[in-house]
Amino acid sequence: MSDVQLYLLEVDKNKPEAQSIAAQSAQKLESKGLKLVDLITSLEPYINDKTDGNLRAKSVGYLADVLSAVPPRVLSGQERRLLGDFILGRIEGDTEGIGASARALLSLEGLGKWDAETAQRVLTTFVNHANPLRQFKLQTERYSVVQLVDLLLAKYREPMKRLHESDPEFMPSFIAFFEGEKDPRNLMIIFSLLQVPMTEWDIQPNAQDLFDSVFNYFPITFKPPPDDPYGITAQDLKDRLRACIAANSDFAPHAFPQLLDKLDSTSMNTKRDVLQAIQACVVGYEAKTINLYSVTLWDALKFEILNVQEEDLAVESLKALTLLGAKLAESSEGPLNAYLRPIIKECNEHLEDAPTKQSEASGRILYSVSMGGQVVADKVVKGVVPTLFNLYNSSESITKRRGLLEVFNQILRAYVDLEDLQPGINTEAVQVHAGEGLDAMVRALLNAPKAEVSFRLTSLNGLAGLVSVRKALSDTQVDSAVDAVTDIVLHERIEGHGDIRTQALQALTEMAHVVPHAVRDRSVPAFMVEMPDCPTEDAVPGPVLEAFAQLSTERQVFDTVTVRLKNKYNAARHQKAPASYQRALLLGLLYAFTLGAPAREDGVILGKYYTEYAEPLVTEVSNGHRESSTLEIIGRLVNALLRPQGVHFQTNVYSKNLDWMTASSNKDNADISLTPFTLHYYAALRPEVTDAADIVPLLQAQATLALNPASDRAYSSTVLRLLSLLVNKFANPKTMQATLEASGIEVQTLLSNNPTPQATQVAFAIVKALLIQGKTGKLATQYLQVLLDRLATCEKETAHRFTILLAPDEILVKENHCLVSGLYKQKVFNQTVPSLTESVRLCGGANTSETSPASDGVGNKDNKKANYLIALSGILRWLPYSVLEPALGSLIPPLLQTLDLSSPSASSPHQLAEESEVKRSALVIFESVLMHDPRLLEEHVSSLVGRLLGCSSSANPTSGKGAGTKARAGASAAGEGAVTVRAKSLQCLALCPKQFRREKVIPFRREVVKQLLGCLDDGKRRVRAEAVRARTAWLGLDEGVEEED
């Protein structure tokens, strides 16, 4: 069989195989094993079969597939021309296989560019003989034709344009050619190719027909199928269609009337499309065209702004007003004045009634219009601001004045934003009224009643805006504005309603960005006056110092603020000011360098800051000046400045401090009070900076402090964190066990032979460091198992320490160059949770699905089971739900038993707080399960509801009333934890009737509603509120019987 016969046999059954056959024919053409004339001759019986149109189409498809597989330069120019003539001649007499013909022509053009005459003939042939395209039912056929037309208009622009100019009948036929197309893929290309004649040809005689041909598709309502392989979205089609509508100014007489008519649609989506189309038209059409419709457009758009239906529609309308102003500003003043006149008139009318929704909307309108450019903004100022201040001065109403100033602030904001877009704009128009505005706002800020918060805040924002408008104020006026705001920050002392110091400080910071010299010259000295070198203990200016430090968030004044804080600290230290004042000054410096805006190079804070600020403090510490209240702050400051620096810089610092720090860390006379500083100092260092030999003595010293029962307990947690840091970051993972042994903190040794509480604490700190590090898997697993084995015989305190293993720590993080394994939480889960759940099961009482707290006796189990439950809760507390989810089936029974844990009556507040935390952890998990996978809890509904009720009740709901002072003080330490447990259990109870099937919870309705009455009398408002929500949810089940009190 010949290739063509094989192709025709396979094309309907196996398209890839058919294409492979065509490719073989192409290879034969390339190797000269087949002549082109023989190929065409072999097609004749099929391509000329008058009785079978489908056969003719498939034979043309064979030719198209062969040509698509033929490499360049195989066919001569003459052969390509003959093939082109052959295909075009077929189309003139037979349109069967029109898609294949188009594909064949596309392949021919790819083998060699056509001349202008051929390109014109191709387009006219299709337009004259395949018109309209929708007569061909298959989308794939139409798609190939559309691709061919797109190629012609893209690559042969001039020949196509000449064709249009030489034949007045061509354009009507061309427009009709695509009429009625509905396929999104085809429309994407059609909308794109039509932009060539729309933007490059003279289409005035055919403008309406061409516009209608695309506007018929407006608005786009296409919704792509969920499995659409082409990825075409409705937004893609909207963007292309919008570009067509806005392509030519000749469309304006047809576009604007129809768009404005559709703006009255009740569909919000249609309104959005209309507003975006109007914006595109304003940008695309000529200014002289827009001038004809500007007032009409204003009349339509203002309705969407003054009578807001949807906020985004108002925003789009405002954007259109901005574009209108910008477009008309390109032309002479006449069109712009004609556009602005009705806007200014209407806004002025609304200002007379301020404050109203319309006056507020007028402010937005004036801002948006002004954003059209400086010329537009100047005209708005001249037309509105005189009227605005006349109304302001003639009114005694604070409310009206506030509404007017809000509009003025909008105009000022437009100038500020314009300056960002067009640096160096002229602000003379604002200068004329700046003095009047400044006086009004300063008077309002300083003299208005303190209760008029909104009026004073409006004035404050206005001052910041007025200062931000470049050259609007003279230097004297700027000083006046800065002084007024500074005075609020420094001297106003209002608690609660009326306090605007926070906003004033924010305004002062904004001013510092624009006029840093004024803030440095006026505000900073005023702050310094309020911060003496040596205040009395009860006169430390905390609020002033806090506000001054917050100025450091502005880069322009950062260095001024930090230098003044440093000098003030040095003076305070020299004059032996109160320790609380020195501490406050150091906290101000710490705030500046952690939350402020220090200079950076390549994103790294400059090293000079460490040299100028941290190094003198470290020198003081090395000389023995070690105030307990400031050491940690100095350490944190050192950390903030040293941590980002490179290895070379850090090495120099480390070498300079090594001797005195080594002496202070000698295990025989280690200074425990230095530990807070040491912790943050070593946290800042990169691992490669230190020598491993230097770390073992430091570990030994800290181990001595940690294991000594006589050590100051106030520093114990800091010492343990330092041990974790040193082991995680500086100890060599390959020699980890030897390092631990040499330092006296090898875990198995620590936990052998009745370990002390101090040894247990150190063991947990070491295991935490190794788990997070993830480099010593075998050793970490071994140590973790040792801790788990201890649960069978240890005290509850040890079980509670399991929560430390995964608890977040600000020191052990990657930012401090620590080694943090990405999967350490999952590994700990896999190593501990299955073992703990199995241990709980073996202790008995794990089957909780049909038992209640009153009958199962969980609270009376021995210490072993309680330890397992506490340790399990501590581990689960820090794990994300996604990690817990696969194991929830086995976790639910022990978690239910966790809710039954109770403390002895003689428990200390600390123990009570720990027990509350254990229950809270379980309740948080139950809350997540109820929200995400309630089906997992359906078999435990009875147990869950009973335990939640037990946790929600308070033994003394009005605790604190009538009790002695000493008793109340003792209870307060654990009180908040107990309150959280009660509130969380009530939240879970509220979810039960919503998340479980009704038949599962209806049996418990009466009992739950009855018991929740007691929670309504709880002494804590938060608990009472949750009780109301839970009871409402259960009452909603509507059992159908009368509720009994």
The helix tally amounts to: 51
Based on DSSP secondary structure assignment, what is the total number of beta strands? 2
Strand content: under 5%
Mean pLDDT score: 90
Task: State the helical fraction.
Answer: 55-70%
Low-confidence runs of at least 5 consecutive residues: 846-861, 956-971, 1040-1045
Question: Strand pairing plus helix content: what structural class?
Answer: mainly alpha
Order of neighbouring strands in the sheet with most strands? 1-2
Main beta sheet, described? Answer: 2 strands, antiparallel
Rg from Cα = 40 Å
The outline comes out as: globular
Distance linking N and C termini = 95 Å
InterPro entries: ARM-like, ARM-type_fold, MMS19, MMS19_C, MMS19_N
Family: Belongs to the MET18/MMS19 family.
Domain MMS19 N-terminal: 40-307
Domain MMS19 C-terminal: 544-992
In short:
The chain is mainly alpha-helical. The protein is 70% helix and 0% strand.
Structure description:
- The chain has 1045 residues and is mainly alpha-helical.
- The chain has a domain at 887-1035.
- It has 51 helices and two strands.
- A two-stranded antiparallel ribbon has the order 1-2.
- Residues 846-861, 956-971 and 1040-1045 have low confidence and may be disordered.
- Residues 544-992 form the MMS19 C-terminal domain.
- Its main location: nucleus.
- It holds the Pfam family MMS19_C.
- Residues 40-307 form the MMS19 N-terminal domain.
